[in-house]
Amino acid sequence: MHLEELQWFVVLAETEHVTEAAAELGVSQPTLSRALTRIEQQAGAPLFDRVGRRLHLNEYGRIMLEHARRSIAEVQAALDRIAALRDPDTGRVRLAFLHSLANWYVPEQLRRFREAAPKIAFDLFQGPAHEVAQRVLDGGADLAITSPRPDPAAFAWHRLYVERLCLAVPVGHRLAARSRVSLSAAADEPFVALEKPLGLRLLTDDLWAEAGIDPEIVFEASEIPTMEGLVAAGFGVAVVPVPREGADTRVVHVPLSNSRAKREVGLAWGRDRPLAPPSERFLQFLSGT
């Protein structure tokens, strides 16, 4: 099975339409159809269910897609490592990171690193913690800047910093004048929270459980700015990281006094996959070694 045909299969699996996939790949439809036939013959099973002119990836196809993506990523990683060994000042770093770090931490670190190593390029992926971790496991990313710490059995970890969590309340709220507050003081408040299984939501669930709170969740958001906007509108309160510059002035952030009200942000990478020199260099840069 040729690597190029695996790449074609991935595109076809993502579009589930021969005409669209052929146009994206720049090949003819008959060429793509013949390649799919060869892949299915080698797999010994159909990888799509045919419904009219559409294709629907079936159970066999989902297995093939998982391993095709991993195989393509491994070959690309090998090429990157070879290129980096030939010229250690070039190469690529495939970096995945959290949504909530996209507007300050990650851009600043990339800017600083590019000043030191301008020829090293980056492939960037932004997403929630579970997708970031899975991307590393699947070979689609070399490093991840994430929180909370993923499974230690599968990931190596270097802590970058720890940030305190606070209770976000609207201006004029009864708790807004506090210098610190225990989460239990907000037990009867409606909460705006992130969706499961987002990392901050998992941390918040732990804090609620520790405080003996069965929260009334009025809305589950996909990003922290949405939570802050709903808090400002008076929908409820929320547990969020202490904000950086440019925070919503309609929201008051009261530090939580709970000892575990903190978020550890770190760099994660696969234990079973050696890092290419550019990624190793970026790791050392972030860790200050």
From TrEMBL:
It holds the Pfam family LysR_substrate. GO terms for molecular function: DNA binding; DNA-binding transcription factor activity. InterPro entries: LysR_HTH_N, LysR_subst-bd, WH-like_DNA-bd_sf, WH_DNA-bd_sf. PANTHER family: HTH-TYPE TRANSCRIPTIONAL REGULATOR CYNR, TRANSCRIPTIONAL DUAL REGULATOR HCAR-RELATED. One of its GO terms (cellular component) is protein-DNA complex. It comes from the Bacteria. Residues 1-58 form the HTH lysR-type domain. Keywords: Activator, DNA-binding, Transcription, Transcription regulation. Required for the induction the katG gene for catalase. Involved in the response to hydrogen peroxide. This is Probable hydrogen peroxide-inducible genes activator. Belongs to the LysR transcriptional regulatory family. The keyword Metal-binding does not apply.
